[in-house]
User: Fold GNAT family N-acetyltransferase from Streptomyces antioxidans.
Amino acid sequence: MSGGASGVRVRLEPWEDSALCLELLRRVNSPEMTSHLGGPESEERLLVRHRRYAELTGPGAGRMYRIVLSETAPPERGEGDEGDGTAGSIGFWERSWRGESVYETGWAVLPSFQGRGIAAAAAREVARAAAAQRTHRYLHAYPSVGHPASNGVCRKAGFTLLGECEFEYPVGAMMRCNDWRLELWPPS
Assistant:
């Protein structure tokens, strides 16, 4: 699966129980990357998350992915870029929201790849993957109201802002978020 806009092309590679995916998860677990999410997780919690990501595969359940720059993307390398083209992670999963079953999405793009449109291109790709499931009509994202970059990704990827909401993340902590929604297919 690949796509992009403004010349940015990404591939979404399914998350695997591999050293490559686990190392990516460790890289996005930095204080810089998790400042809007309650901070880094312990190694133990990270291993649980990695297994959960690898096991998220059933029909309609959702899927986690590595974001990989396609071969047509600019060959720029930044600090922290391992050279394998892995730019971050993204996925979608089921959740109950306001009495309705929907998909939720979330992403993390490594600092050396930020500001290049990669997250928005990946969000459009993950929306296509979620729509192909034909399970839930809506895909939601809940970035913190204080995180302009993630809110910008939602806007650029075609989501509609429904308003602010209280959202529990991590478990036991409430945060003020924006509720962004993308319709995966038109009503019948």
Observations:
- The longest strand covers residues 86-97.
- The two ends are 26 Å apart (CA to CA).
- The chain has one domain: 2-136.
- Helices lie at 19-27, 31-34, 43-55, 118-133, 148-156.
